[in-house]
Write a structure and sequence with these properties.
single chain; mainly beta; 2 helices; elongated
Length: 690
């Protein structure tokens, strides 16, 4: 927070509508080379992931031209020793060459895709670039679909977590979109999600899963750019009536450029100021003022010395129609490891996110049919396993606006019961009630502070029984417990009260009787019972996970066994139990927990010392299934309820059971909430690898 406040104060003083950046250090002289723009727009370094350019005195750049197309430019690089120049290229830059003819504006590049705006079509033009025999070759790909806003900036986002490449398009109208382009081998563009942004935005920059957007009225905004994120925004650099026209990142540190070609870091220190010769002459005494600079691009240059590095910076001078390039030695206060994905390094491309939070992402396999209405509707799932044909198993899920749903293993909705505002659901199979073994599901019904009861027959058809009244106020979550003879319900309310009810059978239907109350200090919801230990695990949303003895005559004293700290980020939401998991070669029962605060899932041993044995996120699958249809599906975020089973729910990968979660933000494209699930075997495989 202190850093943000300092940066805000600096920017408020330095970025105004009447002046450019005011240097807080001595004026930095820089040798500037210029290239004719031919009605240009933006330049980007051309660096391939396999590139080995250490010691090379040339770097290669792409730039766009409305008159010519996509151009290739060689830029000479100074050899640095101990931060001092040892060789300087005095000759003018070589002539640029044409890669793809067209009328192009804007540019973003990440191996192997370049994205530019085709002005004749007003659509984004993807171009694949590959290096063959040391030379770039191009493959012009089909235009992306026409959008519903005019595009003003483009950023590209390679993600190490899932191996996919994404892109962001934004405009002055206050709209932007994230697109999934595919991976390096397969280009299959799909709209990921929409994101509201400030109107009149001028530029963007990407750092891992963070998107930065500049606007002249307020400053620089920060957005979560992960494919499963929500749409929240944060103003990180307030700067009223500013002249910011370019953004980029150096070592994870935000850099800004203004219309006069001055570049500053986020502490207000001037990095450099472009002072360029005319694009029509090599006489460096003839200079033209830079008064309409646009976009800021840069790349770390290769060096034979690990201690001597430089970066090449580029802007486009719109008034004089030229691209300006200059090289700057990196001072010691910049770490030498490049972190920002938008800043490729010729020496170590692909390692830029190494120090960022790297949680393994395991692709979702199936997405259910979405909710029938927008908003926070879907909440908690449960898994019913077919007694003889596992592939016919079902996922039950609550729609907390109106009822209970069931889905087949392909995600298609099978049944909908209008039970009212039910919140959480759990089930047990082969429970002896009324002299018969039954599959029973129970849910909390918030309209009447009651419990809803259901029976599931051998074919998966659900029948509802009359609700059972409780003495609870604002009933919320629940879970079931079955001992040797009896079925119990643990229902909770927002006060932290947990009521244990015994389930009996009277007059052709279930009935309940209060057995005892237990308490936690504050709000709880998700819970699960490990029946082998007779242990109730319940999440106090802000504090962590409690353990109580589940036996009806046991002590009501509980113990906070896992605190909401470190990897477990509040709210603590869904909790389930996987029996007999084999993680890292050790067989053990595991608690599966939704860490809602950072969109992740944690695995803990279900017995003392409750060691954390893994964590992961659920990510994008280019070849998933949605509502019975094979297609790309997104991951999950802000999960409320989840459920897991160790029993087979199909053949092959599904023989070890599955995990199903509620998805709070359904994208690819934007849609109402849904449930996502994946085979347990895919979790084990990924965690063993990592």
């Amino acid at each position: 927070m202190k850093k943000t406040l300092l940066s805000s104060a600096v920017l408020l003083g330095l970025i105004t509508s009447n002046t450019g950046f005011t240097a807080m250090a001595n004026t930095i002289s820089a040798d500037v080379n210029s290239v004719a723009g031919h009605k240009g727009s933006q330049a980007q370094p051309l660096i391939f992931n396999h590139g080995k350019q250490s010691g090379n005195i040339q770097s290669h750049w792409l730039f766009t031209s409305e008159q010519q197309g996509l151009m290739l430019q060689t830029v000479l690089v100074t050899e640095m020793q101990q931060g001092m120049q040892t060789t300087v290229a005095e000759a003018p830059l070589p002539a640029s060459s044409l890669l793809v003819k067209g009328d192009f504006e804007l540019l973003a590049f990440s191996d192997p895709y370049a994205l530019t705006l085709d002005r004749k079509a007003d659509r984004v033009r993807p171009i694949m670039l590959k290096e063959i025999n040391g030379k770039p070759t191009t493959n012009v790909l089909p235009l992306l679909p026409m959008g519903n806003f005019e595009i003003n900036w483009i950023c590209i986002q390679p993600r190490t977590q899932d191996g996919n490449i994404y892109a962001w398009f934004g405009g002055e109208s206050g709209k932007s979109e994230q697109w999934l382009l595919g991976n390096a081998e397969h280009f299959s563009p799909k709209l990921m999600r929409s994101q509201s942004i400030p109107v009149n935005s001028t530029d963007c920059a990407i750092n891992g899963d963070t998107l930065y957007v500049s606007e002249p009225e307020a400053g620089v905004w920060q957005f979560d750019a992960s494919p499963f994120a929500d749409t929240s925004a944060k103003l990180i650099f307030p700067a009223i009536d500013n002249q910011i026209t370019g953004l980029n990142l150096l070592n994870g540190q935000l850099l800004l450029s203004d219309k006069n070609g001055k570049v500053m870091d986020d502490k207000g220190t001037e990095i450099l100021s472009f002072s360029a010769p005319s694009s029509k002459t090599t006489d460096k005494t003839e200079a033209k003022a830079v008064t309409k600079a646009q976009r800021l691009s840069l790349a770390i240059n290769a060096s034979t010395s690990a201690q001597a590095k430089s970066a090449t910076f580029a802007i486009y001078d719109d008034k004089n129609d030229r691209y300006l390039f200059t090289e700057q030695a990196l001072p010691q206060f910049f770490p030498q490891k490049l972190l920002a994905t938008s800043l490729p390094s010729a020496q170590n491309v692909g390692d830029e996110q190494a120090t960022l939070e790297m949680i393994v992402e395991i692709p979702a396999w199936v997405e259910s049919a979405p909710s029938d209405r927008p908003g926070d509707t879907m909440d908690d799932p449960a898994i019913w396993v077919h007694p003889t044909e596992p592939e016919k198993s079902l996922v039950l899920g609550t729609n907390k606006r109106w009822g209970l749903l069931s889905f087949n293993m392909r995600g298609e909705q099978v049944q909908a019961l209008p039970s009212g505002r039910i919140n959480n659901v759990d089930l047990r199979q082969q429970v002896l009630l009324g002299g018969k073994k039954r599959d029973i599901a129970v849910a909390t019904q918030r309209e009447h502070d009651s419990l809803a009861f259901y029976e599931i027959d051998a074919a998966g058809k659900i029948t509802e029984y009359p609700n059972q009244a409780t003495n609870m106020t604002d009933i919320y979550g629940m879970c079931l417990y079955q001992d040797e003879k009896t079925l119990y319900v643990f229902a909770n309310e927002k006060s932290g009260r947990i009521a244990q009810y015994r389930v009996d059978w009277q007059q052709n239907g279930p009935s309940i009787k209060l057995v005892r109350d237990i308490h936690t200090p504050s709000q709880v919801e998700g819970c699960v019972v490990d029946e082998a230990q007779h242990a109730l695990f319940i999440g106090e949303e802000d504090k962590g996970i409690w353990r109580f003895d589940a036996k009806p005559n046991a002590s009501t004293e509980g113990k906070l066994i896992i605190k909401a700290e470190g990897d477990l980020v509040a709210d603590v939401e869904g909790i389930s139990l996987y029996q007999g998991a084999n993680i890292h070669g050790k067989k053990q029962d595991l608690l599966v927990v939704s860490s809602q605060g950072n969109n992740s899932y944690l695995l803990y041993q279900a017995s003392a010392p409750y060691t954390q044995v893994g964590r992961f996120r659920i990510g994008v699958n280019l070849n998933g299934m949605e509502n019975g249809r094979e297609t790309s599906i997104d991951g999950s975020a802000e999960t409320d309820g989840l459920a897991v089973t160790h029993l087979p729910v199909g053949s092959g990968v599904w023989q070890q059971g599955m995990l199903v979660v509620q998805d709070g933000h359904n994208h690819l494209p934007d849609a109402n909430q849904a449930f996502k699930w994946l085979p347990w075997s895919s979790i084990v495989k990924q965690l063993d690898i990592h």
